[in-house]
Amino acid sequence: MLNTTDTMTPAQRAEAIANGREVDRLPCNPNIANGAARVYGCRISEFNYNPKAIAEAQMAVYRKFGCDSMRIFTDLFTWAEAMGATVTFPDDATADLAKPAISRIEDIDTLCPADPYKDGRLPIHVDAMKYLRDLAKDEIKCSAGIVGPFTNAFFLFGVDKTLKLIHKNPEALHKLCRISLETCKAYAKAALEIGLNPTISEPMSSCTVVSPKVFREFSLPYLKELIDFIDSYNATKVVMHICGQTDKIWRDLADMGIGGMSIDNVASLKDCKRVIGNDVKLLGNVDPSGIMHSGTPLEVRIKTLECILDAYDSPKGYVVMSGCSLPVDTPFDNIQMMMDTVKEVGYPVDVERVIKMLEDCRK
Q1: What ranges do the domains of the chain cover?
Q2: Whole-structure pTM over 0.90, yes or no?
C-alpha cells in the first residue's frame, strides 16, 4: 500500500522548508493550468468572464490532488489583448491570438500601458485573485502568472514582424518592450496589493527561439526591471518559466535575483542544478505532453522518480513539476500518480530506496 497521505498543508511545508525544518515530502506542482476546468466541471470559456470560476477551479484542483501551489493564469495573451490585440475564445479550449495590437512600426507610439482594473480581461483576473486569496486562506500560497515584457511585445506586433525588428529596427523593439513592461508592472502591482506573488513566463526568451545575445539585449533589461519592481514590495522571490532550451542563459537568470527556475523537459535538471542550483530553487521537469498527457501512470511514476533523483539535493530546493503547463485533457490518473509518487518517496529522500522503486517499475 502506497503512503499517499500528506501530514502538512502546502503553506506549512513551504514555511518548514524555508526555515530548514523537517517536512513530510518534496513540494509538487503538476501545473494543471486550464485542465482545472475539467476538474471543476466547467468549460474553459467560462474563465474568460467568470472570475469566481477561475478561482474555484484552482481550489478544486487543490482539493482533488493536493498540489503545492495555485496560480491565476489562463493564457499568454491577456496582457496584449488589454493593450489592443484581438483574441479568439473557443468554447472549450484555451484562448489564442487572432490579431496583434498594431501592424505598423509607426503605431508603436499609440500603444498605452494597460490598466489592470479597466482593460480587457485583466479586471476579471484581478477579481479572480481576490476570490482565490479568500478561498485559500492560510492553507496554500497563491500566485499570479504574468507574461514577461519581451514575450508580450511579440503579441503586440506579431511574432514574425517582431523577430525582424531584432536586426532591422532594434530601437522599435526596445520601445515595444518598454511599453509592454509598464503593463507587466501595473499588473504585478495589482497582484502584490491583493497578496499574491507574481510568477513570470517568458517563452519567447527561450534559446530555442532567440540567441542568448538577443535575450541579453532585448529581454534581460526589462525582465530585470520587472523583477526588481516586484522585489521592492518585499515579495517572495519570483519563479521564472521559459520554454525550450535555456541552458545558455541560466546564469543570466540566476544573477537577476529570481527565486526559482522552472525548466522545460528538453532541458537537463542535473545540468541546471550544477550551474545555478546554489542560487535558485529548481522546478521541473516531467514531460507534460509525451509522459503526463500521453503516457501511462507507470511511465509518469518512472519519470517522476528520475527527476527526484536528478534534483532532490539541489542546494536551494527542488519542486517536482511538469516541464510546462499540462495539456487540458491530461488523464487524472497520471496527475494522481505524480502526486502519489512524491508522497511515497517522502522526505528526506532515501536515494537507495528511490533507486529500488525505479528498478521495480522497470521489471
Answers
A1: 10-362
A2: yes
